[in-house]
Here is the input.
Amino acid sequence: MTLITDPERNDATNNADPTAGAATVRTPTNGDTRDDTRLAEPPSPPTNSAESASNRSGRRRRWPYVAAGLGLAAAGTASAVVLTGDGDEADVAEPMSFRTVSAEVRDLVEFTELDGRMVYADTVALTAATDGVVTEVVADGDSVERGQTVYEINGLPVVAFVGDTPMYRTLGPGATGDDVRLIEANLASLGHHTVEDDDGDPVDTGFVVDDVWDDATTDAVVRWQEDLGVATTGQIAATDLIVIDGSAPVIDVPIEVGERVSAGTPLVELSGGPITSTRHVEHSGEIELAVVAGAPIANGDIVYTVDGAPVTAIVAPDGLERELSEGVEPGEDVMALEEMLLALGHDADGDLDVDDEFDEATTRAVIEWQEDLQDRYEDDDVDVRVDGRVEPSEMYVVDEGEVVGTITAHDDELLASGTEIWSADTSG
Here is the structure.
């Protein structure tokens, strides 16, 4: 057993009762190496100087016990025993125990309630084009679509057309420009480019979506005006239309029917909506789409048929605007055609090289492709030409990885060139 005391005590401390401080005793028991350290309870302080002197003398006599036990300290650790001043063992406290818990990582969640009104980040304000009394207006929560009357002032409707060219002038016969194209594209999408025969079937009028206002355009405008119930002038004023990016929800209508307004007064607030791109047919005739909304268009897919004849998608970054045949001037359009043929598996028995030259192997690959189309449309009585030549009217240029957007609905399948066939959100 080892009694450990403080050998560094000074003389002032040595004059005190040796049992007044704490002592630590370590005893090895059966090889147990656990530390068991306890503090002795101090005795009562001395009551007089004589007793103190006696205690000092007794303390000096007890040092041999301490010295004799110091050599056992390194033997190990075990249960602790404390000697009192009389050499008796004192009671000791039980060992302190500890309880462990697992640490957890949690989210600190805080809720704050605020009063407010939700609004759209991007909005479009439609204002009155003229002075007058509001006789009709769309309702909050409605959706403004192509061809829909947004409001009326003095009984005259203002209609929404879709596009990205603003109306700024009166348009009529002989006019040219992008705004003319916008008018024609919307008239075609609304079905005013055709007429019906006595049996109710649509008849092609020769209407074409371009940038020239011709007689067919005037006739289409007259049919649209008749449908609206307004004067059939064959012209369109800038105040007759509102141009929007696409279908958009109405989020606020700050005026009431019957209110008098001046030009520029806000009448309707629309959500800005997504930015859209549109695709259009490049032929006039009976159009039947061969693609579906949400599906990607692969190089060589059939996009639609016109009067039964297939129109094929081609990925051609530089476009395809000339007839391609053997011996034509080398170019990027030739390479795009060869890439399409190879993607379809028409490689002229392995002789086709994808380059910019239309050679004999290219001709053979084109004929393989044309024969394949002829077999596919044999039952439709479609005469697919098989001669190794490719004309722009047979192809439809698409972007690589392009996906078909929302299909545009039409009342009939007889469409004019330039008529919208689908639109896609390009905001992202």
Remarks:
- The radius of gyration is 48 Å.
- Helices lie at 11-14, 49-69, 178-189, 215-228, 332-343, 360-376.
- Residues 99 and 394 are 83 Å apart (CA to CA).
